[in-house]
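Recall the central idea of this unit: under ordinary conditions, the amino acid sequence of a chain determines the structure it adopts. In this exercise we apply that idea directly, starting from the sequence alone.
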Amino acid sequence: MINMIKSDVYRITKNVAFYSAAAIMLFMIGISAYVVEPGSVGMVNVGDVNTTPASSNIYENMSYEEIRDLSVKQMRELALNMEGYELDRAVLSANANLYYVFIFIAALVITVDFSAGSVKNTLSSAISRRKYFLSKTALVFLVCLLLFFSNTYIFYFANLIVNRGKVSSDLWTVTKISLLQLPPMLAIMGILVGIAFIVKKTSVYNVIAIPLLMVFQLLLSLACTIFRLDSKIVQYELQVMIRSLANDPSSGYLLRCCLYCGVLLAVFLGLGYASFRKSEIR
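Accordingly, the structure predicted from this sequence is:
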């Protein structure tokens, strides 16, 4: 199993898609540090739950026309002079953006093997399906965790340098936020691994995985509106959860997030393994 992981690591580091994923992450870090505001992919607020970070208050006393006419330099000045604003906390609140980077990793590690047909050769060389599943899952988690923590610390130091510490929190704060966000981030990794083993082909995987987060947000928002569901359930949508966990959550909320994410992780990994074990490999 270790040899298989080493082989996959070598193959990944030779693939341009891996560097594309890293480049996307670094691009988001650079843009966020320069404009002094996090970018966000997807729906920022789902339902009525207030999960928007402090950065939204930068423009609270300005009209739409005034905000539209601001130059990047003026936006930077406003943000840099906002009292109590922690840019790294705001950026980590938008860590759901990493979902789109993780998609690359799961595809490189898992679905590329199925699409190329190399999985059949691997399984015929005394590697059981169980070992294959475990090694692929472990590698996806290891690479995604490496990118997750790299994103945290690269941005922390980039923010210190670019903005001269004006909107920075301390190193322990960003570490604590990252640790608190581990449950939903691990759940995201598990979901992507499960989907990859269920659909197997890269083309199908991309069609499902890329819009999945935004589609689920939209459906949940519509369900809350149409069926008048308790808005509190929105607190357990993955992007909302990631934002909330970056902003000093209560211990009760953290525990419920851990339980919910643990269930998601177990369900998707279980479905992925069950599908892989029973499928015919061609």
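Residues 43-55 have pLDDT under 50 and may be disordered.
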